[in-house]
Amino acid sequence: MKKLIGVFIMLLSVSVMAGNGDGKMDLGDKAALTHVKMLDVSGEKISLGEAQKDNGLVVIFSCNTCPFVKQWEDRYPEIKKWADKNDVGMMVLNSNYQNRDGVDSYEAMQKHAETKGYNFHYVVDEESQIANAFGGQTTPHVFLFDSNMELAYKGAIDDSYKSADEVNQAYLKDAIISLANNEKIAVTETKPTGCSIKRKIQ
After folding, report:
1. What are phi and psi of 40, to 5 degrees?
2. How many C-beta atoms lie closer than 10 Å to residue 8's C-beta?
3. Residue range 157-190, pLDDT digits in tens
4. From CA 130, how far away is CA 151, in angstroms rounded?
5. If you ran DSSP here, which 8-state letter would residue 164 be given?
């Protein structure tokens, strides 16, 4: 029964966006606001530009409590491993402005990062400005930039939020490897699946 209730809640909270509906950034567009410093759970401030490595940067819009994030976030360390191996930076952003006094407060983010053993930058996207600039829609929602900080892939992490064992296409991992090897990325855009970002509307 608990499992059925959980599935029902996930279906209620799902927001699936794609194509022209998923925002302002098209493939090949340069990342915006790369200079903006954001507060990391470590207490330090860091910008997208500072997190970038030689072959690019992975940006994941995420949060603390979305059921889809909870299904996918155990794969975040694997993404970090592949990013490091291929000289790509990684930053996870919490853009849930409307939850900033509750489940997505800075203190809650710190606790969540410690509990889950996050070994990557997890930062506050103040007033959802990066999410709004990129057109981030869901938690999670991935944006992969190349060495010129031009958008090379956007969408889902892979094709199964339910289980890593059920993944047939590891979109982000494959894109990172192709990017680092100067190869054409086979799949450059997929539908992000998750909870809607509780953004500040501009």
Report:
1. -90, 160
2. 10
3. 999 999 999 999 999 999 999 999 999 999 999 9
4. 14
5. G
Per the CB < 8 A criterion, the answer to whether 119 and 7 are in contact is: no
For 199, which DSSP code? P
Residue 190 carries which side chain, given as an amino acid letter? T
- Which residue in this structure is represented by tokens 């929602």? 141
pLDDT in tens, 78-113: 999 999 999 999 999 999 999 999 999 999 999 999
Tokens read off for 83 = 């990013």
The candidate with the shortest Cα–Cα distance to 60, out of 41, 80, 42, is: 80
- Collapsing DSSP states into helix, strand and coil, what is residue 122? strand
**Helix 76-85 to helix 171-180 angle, to the nearest 10 degrees?**
10
Using an 8 Å Cβ cutoff, are 22 and 192 in contact? yes
175, 55 contact by CB (below 8 A): no
Instruction: Indicate the SS3 state at residue 177.
Output: helix
Using CA atoms, how far apart are residues 117 and 192, in angstroms rounded to an integer? 24
Euclidean distance between CA atoms 160 and 193, whole angstroms = 10
Name the DSSP class of 55: T
pTM metric for this prediction: 0.89
